[in-house]
Specification:
This protein has 387 residues and is α/β, with parallel strands linked by helices. It has helices at residues 20-28, 42-62, 70-87, 105-114, 134-146, 149-152, 166-181, 200-206, 210-225, 249-258, 276-293, 308-322, 329-333, 353-376, 380-383; strands spanning 4-10, 92-98, 119-124, 156-158, 190-196, 231-236, 263-267, 297-300. The chain contains 15 helices and 8 strands. The strands form 2 sheets. Strands 2-1-3-4 form a 4-stranded parallel beta sheet, sandwiched between helices. The chain has a 4-stranded parallel beta sheet with strand order 6-5-7-8, with helices on both faces.
C-alpha cells in the first residue's frame, strides 16, 4: 500500500515568552507579510519591528498563559487526522510544517524523507487562500523541493483552499448554532464574523482572492446555518498605518453597540485553532470594546480545534485530493497572470526604468525617516500611536 505523507501547513506561534521576539522576526522577515521594493531592507526592518513589538506581544501572551497553544492543538489535529485516515484504510502519516516557528517546514521534509514516503498531500490549515498564509507556506515548501532532488521526485498534490467544503461549513454552522441557542433571545442574536485582515493592496493591486473567499464563506455558513439571524463580517488584527480590509472589527463592534445590539455571537472565521488572535484579541480586547459599546452578552464561538466533523472534513479533503490529479505547489500558489509578486520577479513600482529609480530613492528616504523617528522618539507615527 502506498505510503502517503500529509503535510499540514500552519503559521506557528511562540510557546514561551522568550520565543516571542524571534517568532516576530521570522514573521516580518517574510516578504509576503511586508512587501518592500529593496530586498536588502527586509531583515533590518524585521529586526526593528520585532524589537519594537516584542514587549507588547509578550504582555499579550502572558495574558493567555505565557505562550501560544497553536503547536499543541495542531499536533492533536495531526494525530486525529492520521488516525481517521488509517481507519479509512489510507496508509497516511501526518507532518506539521509551521512557517514561522518550530517545527519548521524543513523538519517536516526531513521526516518525510526519513520515513520513505511514496507521495505527498499538502493541506494548509487555512480555509481561505491568501498570499500571506497558504501562499507563503506553498512557496517555502517549493523552495525546499527545488533544492532537494529526492523530495522533488515524490508525486505531490497541494490543496489550495477549502473555504466552501461541505464538511467545514457543517462544522462551523453547528458551533455557531450552539452559541446562538445559549443566548437569552436566540432569534435576535447577532452573528459577528471576525476574519484576520490583510492590507487592501493585496486584494486590489496583487489580486489576492482572500477577501472574495472570506465573503463567500460567510454567506455559505449562514446558508448552512439556516437561521434568519442578522450578521456582520469584519476584519481584525490590523498592523501599521496602511489601509487594510474593512470594516475593522473594533469599529464594527462599536457601531453594533450604538445600534442597540445586546447579544453577540462572535465567529473567528479564518482560524481553525485557538491562538493569540482568539484568546487575547477577541476574548479580551474585543470583548471589552463590545461591552463598553453596550453589548451585554458577548459569546465567542470556539475554534474548530479537533471537532470530529472538522477532522472528518480534513480527511475527506485528503481522500478527494488523492483521487484527483497531481497539483504542484506553484500551481496551488498561482495568482492571475498579470500579477508579479516580489521577490520572485522584479517588483514594478513605476511605469519605466526612471520611475523605478525614483521609487527606490523614495523608499530609502522613507526608511531613513522611519529610522530617525525611532531614534528621536518624535514624529507622525508616534503622534498616531503607531510607535
Amino acid at each position: 500500500m502506498s505510503r502517503v505523507g500529509i503535510v499540514l501547513l500552519n503559521l506557528g506561534g511562540p510557546e514561551r515568552i522568550q520565543d516571542v521576539g524571534p517568532f516576530l522576526y521570522n514573521l516580518f522577515a517574510d516578504p509576503e507579510i511586508i512587501r518592500l521594493p529593496i530586498p536588502q531592507l527586509q531583515k533590518p526592518l524585521a529586526w526593528l519591528i520585532s524589537t519594537l513589538r516584542s514587549r507588547k506581544s509578550q504582555e499579550a501572551y502572558r495574558s493567555i498563559g505565557g505562550g501560544s497553544p497553536l503547536r499543541r492543538i495542531t499536533d492533536q489535529q495531526a494525530r486525529e487526522l492520521q488516525s481517521l485516515l488509517r481507519q479509512r484504510e489510507v496508509n497516511a502519516t501526518t507532518y506539521v510544517a509551521m512557517r514561522y516557528w518550530h517545527p519548521f517546514t524543513e523538519s517536516a521534509v526531513a521526516d518525510i524523507k526519513a520515513d520513505e514516503i511514496d507521495q505527498v498531500v499538502v493541506l494548509p490549515l487555512y480555509p481561505h487562500f491568501s498570499i500571506s498564509t497558504s501562499g507563503s507556506s506553498f512557496r517555502e515548501l517549493q523552495r525546499l523541493r527545488q533544492g532537494d532532488p529526492n523530495f522533488a521526485k515524490l508525486p505531490l498534490r497541494a490543496i489550495r483552499s477549502w473555504h466552501d467544503h461541505p464538511g467545514y461549513l457543517r462544522a462551523m454552522a453547528q458551533l455557531i448554532a450552539n452559541e446562538i441557542d445559549a443566548c437569552v433571545d436566540p432569534a435576535k442574536a447577532h452573528v459577528f464574523f471576525s476574519a484576520h485582515g490583510v492590507p487592501k493592496s493585496y486584494v486590489e493591486e496583487v489580486g489576492d482572492p482572500y477577501q472574495k473567499e472570506i465573503e463567500s464563506c460567510a454567506d455559505l455558513i449562514m446558508e448552512q446555518l439556516g437561521r434568519g439571524n442578522p450578521w456582520t463580517l469584519a476584519y481584525q488584527s490590523r498592523v501599521g498605518p496602511v489601509e487594510w480590509l474593512q470594516p475593522y472589527t473594533e469599529e464594527a463592534l462599536e457601531e453594533l453597540g450604538a445600534k442597540g445590539v445586546k447579544e453577540l455571537v462572535v465567529v473567528p472565521i479564518s482560524f481553525v485553532s485557538e491562538h493569540i488572535e482568539t484568546l487575547e484579541e477577541i476574548d479580551i480586547e474585543y470583548r471589552e470594546i463590545a461591552t463598553e459599546a453596550g453589548v451585554s452578552n458577548f459569546r465567542r464561538v470556539p475554534a474548530l480545534d479537533t471537532d470530529p466533523t472538522f477532522i472528518a472534513s480534513l480527511a475527506d479533503l485528503v481522500q478527494e485530493s488523492l483521487a484527483g490529479p497531481e497539483v504542484d505547489l506553484d500551481q496551488a500558489a498561482a495568482l492571475p497572470a498579470r500579477t508579479k509578486l516580489y521577490p520572485q520577479e522584479k517588483w514594478e513600482w513605476g511605469w519605466n526604468n526612471s520611475s523605478e529609480v525614483w521609487n527606490g530613492r523614495l523608499a530609502m528616504l522613507g526608511f531613513s525617516a522611519f529610522l530617525l523617528e525611532l531614534i528621536s522618539g518624535q514624529g507622525p507615527l508616534h503622534a498616531l500611536g503607531l510607535l
